[in-house]
Design a protein that fits this description.
- It is elongated and about 70 Å long.
- The mean pLDDT is 92.
- It is of the alpha/beta class.
- It folds into 2 domains: 59 residues, DNA polymerase, domain 1 (Orthogonal Bundle), CATH 1.10.150; 267 residues, Alpha-Beta Barrel (TIM Barrel).
- The strands form 3 sheets. Strands 3-4-5-6-9-10-11-12-13-14 form a 10-stranded mixed sheet, covered by helices on one side. The chain has a two-stranded parallel sheet with strand order 1-2.
- The longest helix has 19 residues.
- It is built from 10 helices and 14 strands.
- The protein is 34% helix and 19% strand.
Length: 349
């Protein structure tokens, strides 16, 4: 007779209440559920053996029925500017990338939300990959934990900020992204302020409105890159079903519901969206939506022929917006030499 081996459940998918019910059903004390939850989400335990305030028999019981599907660091690269890129191996062997971006006043984790991406943005390396699956909330959380450890190990400084700007479209993995932020910001989790978290989207109007309905407290960034539909359609096919007019309506809805000002991310491509006319269109769009603008250098990828604009054109573009009263930051690329910069994440060897 062949005995069927039952696959263990991932304990991090259980709520405290579900854990309590399971424990009492096994003749264990229900209050242990809170202790286990603290080990999983506050202390980031990777094994039941670490849970030293539980009896050995309880730990063995948990180990017999559950698993902790934690990720591991498969590969790590350090840039000349201190940026650290990690390839994280998931429990099912897929890889995603996360980046630690150090600065004098902050330590930022850039995390992924999907294995690959389905949006096919023409300038982004991840957009040329097939979307394999969504990341689970715990897998996003684990990236933050690992990158926080890197910040301490490499710079002796705590992690201060998180950006959901790695591989994938966060709003197409809505439930897991929201749950991961809950664990990261909860006093029963990592306890980070939601104001230090930014979720970046290519622009899915329906889900932006949902963020407003959920009255989220984190910040929202829109990957804009062109302020007219014809150009944006060329580089971001998602715009064909989520026009700038629809996005403006959704972003204003979000702003009224949350009071959170939006950031527009705008990569300047040589001879594509870097003229003063483009800057004027961007200024016009900022009048429709309360927003600040991050102008971002383009980081070339092998799959696309785009080039970064010249420094003087970038400066004139930014100066035009500033003269119109727009809050503008120019973001210089970090980690370009190890393919860790914006738009370059693609699990390359």
């Amino acid at each position: 007779m062949v005995t069927e081996v039952k696959e263990k459940a991932d304990i991090r998918k259980l709520t405290v209440e579900q854990m309590k019910q399971w424990l009492t059903g096994q003749g264990e004390q229900g209050f242990r559920a809170k202790q286990i939850h603290e080990w999983l989400w506050k202390k980031s335990a990777r094994s039941f053996g670490e849970m030293t305030n539980l009896s050995l028999s309880t730990r063995e019981l948990l180990d017999a029925h559950f698993t902790i599907n934690s990720l591991t660091t498969d590969k790590q690269q350090k840039s000349n500017d201190g940026t650290v890129k990690s390839a994280f191996r998931l429990y099912d062997a897929h890889l995603v990338e996360g980046v630690l971006i150090p600065a004098s006043d902050r330590m930022t984790a850039c995390v992924s939300s999907q294995v690959g991406c389905s949006l096919t943005c023409k300038f982004c390396a991840t957009g040329y990959m097939e979307r394999k699956r969504n990341l689970e909330a715990a897998e996003i959380y684990d990236q933050v934990v690992e990158i926080a450890r890197q910040a301490e190990a490499n710079f002796g400084a705590p992690l201060t900020n998180i950006v959901y700007m790695g591989m994938g479209e966060p709003l197409l993995n809505y439930a897991n992204v929201m749950q991961s932020i809950e664990h990261i910001t909860s006093p029963q989790g990592l306890g980070m302020s939601p104001r230090r978290i930014t979720v970046s989207t290519a622009g899915i109007a329906k889900m932006i409105k949902k963020l407003g309905d959920d009255e989220v407290r984190f910040r929202l960034a829109l990957s804009l890159h062109a302020a007219n539909d014809a150009k944006r359609n060329q580089i971001m096919p998602i715009n064909e079903s989520n026009s700038l007019e629809n996005l403006a309506e959704a972003l204003n809805y979000f702003y009224k519901k949350t009071g959170n000002r939006i950031t527009f991310e705008y990569i300047v491509f040589h001879n594509f969206n870097d003229t003063l006319q483009d800057a004027k269109e961007l200024w016009e769009f900022t009048k429709k939506v309360p927003a600040r603008v991050n102008i971002i250098e383009y980081n070339p990828i092998a799959e696309a022929s785009f080039k970064n604009t010249e420094a003087d054109r970038l400066d004139k573009f930014a100066a035009f917006l500033e003269n119109k009263g727009v809050t503008v930051s120019v973001r210089r690329s970090r980690g370009k030499d190890i393919d860790a910069a914006c738009g370059q994440l693609a699990n390359k060897d």
